Amino acid sequence: MKTGLAARFNSGLAWLLLVLLVAPALVAIPVSLTPRRFLSFPTDELSLQYYRKLFTSPEWLSSFGQSAVIGLSSTLLATTIGTLCAIGLWRVSSRAGEVMRAILLLPLVIPPIIAAMAFYRLFVPLGLIDSYIGLILAHTVLSAPLVLITVSASLAGFDPRLEQASRNLGASNWTTMRRVILPGIKPGVMAGAVFAFIASWDEIVVTLFLSKFSVYTLPRRMWNGIRENTDPTVAAAAVVLMVVTLVAFSIWALAVRRQRPTE
Amino acid sequence: MRAIPRHALNAGWILVLPFVVLVGALFLGPIFNILWLSVSDPTPGLGNYTELFTSDSLGRILWTTLRVCVICTAISVVLGYSIAYAMVHAAEGTRNKMLGLLLVSFWISVLVRTFSWLMLLGRNGVVNSTLETIGIISEPISFMRNELGVLIGMVHYMVPYAVLPILASMQSIDGRVLQASRSLGATGTQTFWRVYLPLSRAGLVAAALLVFIINLGFYVIPAVLGGGKVLMVAEYISVQVLVTLQWGTAAMLAALLLFGVLALLFLMSRFMKLSTVFGGARA
Questions:
Q1: Which of A38, A112, A219, B134 could form a disulfide with A204 if both were Cys (CB 3.0 to 4.6 A apart)?
Q2: Would the ipTM clear 0.90, i.e. be above it?
């Protein structure tokens, strides 16, 4: 189709919209550099005091640590369980398997507020409220479906005859899995792990229900900061949160790019 | 089909088992418990559901939720369509840059966005002071603690979700059909409205349903940008559970939300394979 005036106008509009999608988040950067004691834009001088505060205050540091522990633990669990499940469903490859896949993806589509209620109701009698284990388990349930999706996508491009060849040559189930299947689907496993980590690192709704005093993740502390809306440290935390997400995203994007020529 | 030896079939299910146990015990089981609560707490029966017709505040909350969701979905889908159209018709390099921006925005935390909107939309925020400086307005516009602010925040969050299904369906349109339309004498505008738009309908419907589903249970943005003035279902549920401890009402609302979402998902699966929407396995 020729590029008409309307199409050219539309692509201008699309670029504007795309820039507007990303740009508002950048406002946290100047606010985090304010020298003043309240949330404001710096006018004449810049100050790093709120980054210093972020990285020296025991509260924020413990939140970073807790978010990292919960994020990494739930990523490890979700990646293991999700990868095994994807391989299992790929082997089963039946209608029942597809129904099971749909059921296992439910944690992705059911609103987080319902998940939060369900976990809360379950964890109160078990004494898992405000505990690491509770949050790790909850985040694992919410992020394992992401791993299932990415690993299944990798498996869709994996030649099942390789598995048969390995078996015919006498390899055991376990050896076939470790030496043939896993190397073949590595990009999907890595992508799933990155998504699972980001999902846990950013998670707030379920965390609001499950944490009280002793477990206080980074999003939980940011949520308080946003509600109080006075301390500029929250702006510095927003910038750090964004940077970590972007780094994880770039790792994924580079992995995808490197994988492409061999496909 | 490849031949599968019988023991391999069993081995497959064993690998699926840990995930099934986890989701069953920690997620689906407790959700059934919530459904049960909705008809058993505080007294057995449908009392919680009849409240829907008798309580003014419940009616108002449902109406606000539906109104905000419908408006937000309409705007997001129109903007998403424009972006997807431009992406499909751009050269490959440009398209990858556009996709990059889209995915970056997709992954920026909802908390960071909410915080940024607070800074931008406040009475003395960037938007108001800019508009005042260039003389478009004399009084600051109030964006926050009302539906306008909630809509801005939600649309901003939702546009990338709207783009992805539309993009998938536009990419499957055969360019020769459009050429045929042009060579038979239709103008560019006619071709768009009579040929292109109907061909991308599946993506459009799937995008609208997806955005609507996510909107229905949205918590963070309405709670912060609405500042208690725009009370939607998710925030109301959290108040019922954590503050007033009325599990029955909360469970009833959760049940409504759940059945609404599942019905819409079923509808959506008839327009587009869900795996395409979620970027999954067998597209």
A1: A219
A2: no
